[in-house]
Amino acid sequence: MTLFDRPFRTLLSREILRFTRVWMQTIVPSLLTSLLYVIVFGLALGSRIREVNGVPYLEFILPGIAMMTLITGAYMNSSWSVFDAKRERYIDEVLISPMSDFQITLAYTLGGTLRGIIVGAGVLVLGAPFAGVEVAHPLLLLFAGLCVSFTFAALGVLVGVLATRIEHISFLMNVILQPLTFLGGVFYSVEMLPEALRVGTLFNPIFHMVDATRYATLQVSDLVPYPTFAAVFFLALAAFGAAWWVVSRSKRLRY
Amino acid sequence: MINGERNGVPALQVKNLTKTYANGVVALNDVSLEIPAGRFFGLLGPNGAGKTTLINSIVGLARPDSGEVKVFGRDAHRDYRYARRMIGVSAQEVNLDKFLTVEEVLLYHAGYFGVPRDKARERAEELLDRFALQEKRRQRVNTLSGGMKRRVLFAQALMHDPEILFLDEPTAGVDIELRYRLWGYIRELNRGGLTILLTTHYLEEAEELCEEVAIISGGEIAARGANGELKERYGARTLEEVYLKVVGNDLVR
């Protein structure tokens, strides 16, 4: 029995169908919101800010905005999917199928990862004409995008399993992820911060993700790039490990 | 067919199963049960007696504290892929994937259980016909009526061609006509060799369908035997009388 057997592929395709079928609700709003950021911060305010780290402001913030959209898309997809399936108990069908808990976790995580990648890439593609961005290291960008999307999709699975109310999902999004994203250097360089905040930012995992993406896109970064990529990769593994643990142990799924 | 192939290995063996909830309630207290292959078996008992917990412990939705479950002689925990493929479950509460159409529910279910695509399509056609769901096949399941959903649930449990079927209150909230149709169909499946474990509140349903019943009360098997045998043992005319005597209700005494 291999990892990518028919049961696994079926659950993954169900996860993809879930967000592609309602793309007007899952893909379009994320792209519109990001375009608003590009317009407001980039075109309107950006004309007052010349350059950050030697890069025009709009160009500087675009990779960060793409990453922010990707994080939200990945997290929302898997958290909602698992939460809904659990609340209405149709996840039982998956739990009593011959799939292993590892396969179940991976299928839900990859579904969210793909949605994150689609909206993240969409933002870059739509924003590029405004910012005039050319991607410096496309493969590194793909690697960073996949790792980050995977991380937040896995986190979404974890939250989807543990949440007992819808508010828990939005709480994590609004009270933890959004602030960390905004404080993660999407709109500014960490160099612009006072010393204490600069050190604090180093403990924000999203800062490392944004920085890796910015390096891959613009070849500009606050940190030394390659250790950052390694950190981003290990975060993805850790998040998946946690999600897997919760899927196989939580009494909210198998009591 | 199954009896012959499996040389008398029981379809299901449950040994000393115990399950305690976090709040201290003992849902299953040292339950042992053996169901021969091909048997139509009824599991009766009041609400909260442990029927669903027993089923869930067998299929892996509940984690028993101790005990052993074997499906056709193989450990249901260690050999879970095998065990889960053998069992089809029609749950008590309708739990259909609301994002999917009727046809998709069946095909995705088959996929989750590893049924090849062509075979799944064939099987879906057969079950859509059988449960008169052809007209609704492209409709999302959350737009269906209660009875229709129940039919889809039933068809879904059968999609991967299981050898044991768990029916947890299959006719709750179902109209008379559908109930009779379901009865006819399950009987036919059982004659074809399918082992069936039915839980029900309707004692006439158990009387009508089951060859053998177990009455579970307070997490323990309080009585077990063939219908006729139980009636004789308890000096009762109907299964209902047996039931009331066993679960300690003295109304009929």
Automatic annotation (TrEMBL), chain A:
Protein name, entry field: Transport permease protein
Pfam families the record matches: ABC2_membrane (PF01061)
Family listed: Belongs to the ABC-2 integral membrane protein family.
Signal peptide: none
GO molecular function: ABC-type transporter activity
Membrane topology per record: Multi-pass membrane protein
Species per Swiss-Prot/TrEMBL record: Rubrobacter taiwanensis
UniProt keyword list: Cell membrane, Membrane, Transmembrane, Transmembrane helix, Transport
Localization per Swiss-Prot or TrEMBL: Cell membrane; Membrane
Transmembrane stretches, start-end: 21-40, 60-83, 104-127, 139-164, 171-190, 226-247
Annotated InterPro entries: ABC-2_transport_permease, ABC2_TM, ABC2_TM_bact-type, ABC_2_transport
Any one Gene Ontology cellular component term annotated for this protein: ATP-binding cassette (ABC) transporter complex
ABC transmembrane type-2 domain mapped to chain residues: 21-250
